[in-house]
Amino acid sequence: GALMRSSQQALPPVNLAAAGMPGCFAHVLAPVATLFVAPGTSQNIPETIPNSTALVGFPLVGQAVTYNPALNALGLVASNAVVTALGL
Q1: Is 69 exposed, middle or buried, given 0-12, 13-18 or 19+ CB atoms closer than 10 A?
Q2: What is the spatial distance between Cα 6 and Cα 63, in angstroms, rounded to a whole number?
């Protein structure tokens, strides 16, 4: 799978049906991706965020995509987004 993160959220989300992923939407614009292999049904991915007051309020948008060839033509499934802001 992949964890995608960005400071920009797609509003409205981009429908991925034309790419072979009906019912899935892209919520993250210009993402930075971290690839992972999950041995089970969940995966922890630690993040390092600098301890800086300049980052207070900085928005973070995250979304995961996993491989599941049985669910659609492309074989990928996208999660919903998580939107948060950094704080102290």
Answers
A1: exposed
A2: 9
Residues 6+ apart with CB under 8 A from 51: none
Contact 29, 59 (CB under 8 A): no
Query: What pTM did the predictor assign?
Result: 0.84
- pLDDT single digits (tens) 59-71: 999 999 999 999 9
Token representation of residue 32? 């930075």
CB count in 10 Å sphere of residue 20: 12
3-state percent breakdown (helix, strand, coil) of the chain, nearest 5: 5, 45, 50
Distance CA 28, CA 17 (A): 16
d(CA 10, CA 62): 11
Tokens, residue 16:
């991925």
